[in-house]
What does this fold into?
Amino acid sequence: MAPRVRFAPSPTGHVHIGNIRVALFNWLYARHEGGEFLLRIEDTDRERSTPEAIETLLDAMRWLGLDWDESPVYQSARTDAHLAAADKLLADGVAVREDKGGKGECVVFKMPDEDMVFYDELKGELRKKKEDTSDFVIVRSNGTPVFHLANVVDDIAMNISHVLRGDDHIENTYRHVALFRALGAEPPRYAHFPMIVNQAGKPYSKRDGDAFVGDFRAKGFLSQALFNYLALLGWSPGDDREKMTREEMVEAFTLERVKNSPAQMDLQKLLHLNGLYMADLPASDFMARARRVLAACPWGAQVSDADFERVCQLMQSRTKLIAQAEEWKYFFSDMPDYDDEKAVRKGLKKDGVQAALTRLVCELERGSFDEASIERSIREVERAEGIREGKLNFAIRVATTGTATGAGLYETLALLGRERTLVRLRHAANTLCG
Ligand code: GLU
It folds into this structure.
């Protein structure tokens, strides 16, 4: 039978990447198996689960392309069903009314008189001794159902075959299995995914860096890249593929290949993947995104379309995150900002650099100014000045762009043009070296 899985978040206004990764694994599993991926909004905490918080969640799911089947189920609308289940448990004698601390009666579920055991698809058999389990409240004295009851009653009603969730829920699962049985239902199959952790191996949180889907989106990460990255965070296709299409991930996704050890958040890897997806964007899409970044820069609004297009062509395959377009100022201004002191020190404040740059100015003054001739001129100067081949490139880059990184040097100079290149080289040689 095709599986029915669900994502059952409690919306809080922020969508943690650990949570959305659980959604993503459920989605991949359902799509791989040809089953159904359902959405249940566990919105019983009305203070946190506001309409805006729910919209933030749905928006994050849509952005990542996590399309769900059927209509979302809102847990807050199912209180009657939860309470009816509690009545049945009371009638069957497996739950009792108790007054805990004089606050009125609540309903307490009696754990069965046996060890609790369930099979986890990732971790194998998990067991808890009778003496380590305890009875628990399923309806509060104010008449509201507790998470455990609502969660299980809804999974039964939604006919969920597999509960795939974070391993912070393992302790709950012993209780849930008992509730399923007491309600006359077969418990679903379970898989509990290891947490996403930081460098120190502790659960990854806001304190460690960006942790919410909205943070990544606001920074300009592409949804395909974040999707791909999160899929690989604790799962692997079984070979060394990294950049994969959604179809390839669906095709390759199995629970056996989900790793049973915590997945360490690696921002560099996310950036790397994002860069690969950036390089694949249609040029017009890349330009539109870069334009938005420049529009927010004090110098960026006046940039002409022609210059802009050439810079985009040069920079697209080297841009990991669109915000890096903020660093393109040197392409569009008369002079770069030489405020990267480290680059200036390492590139220009070195013996022999001043003489070499001065000689390069003479070399570049005549002849054609294409990439190949620029490269030839630089090699020529290195030979004449007794500098090892390629060693002068860094100084030239700092002199002409003010930065230590960028696109290929010869392409960059060709794009800047002879005029601006010479002005910058002269300025560097005369005022920044030594
Ligand atoms: N609302 C719970 C959570 O977000 C439900 C977990 C689940 O059963 O999947 O942790």
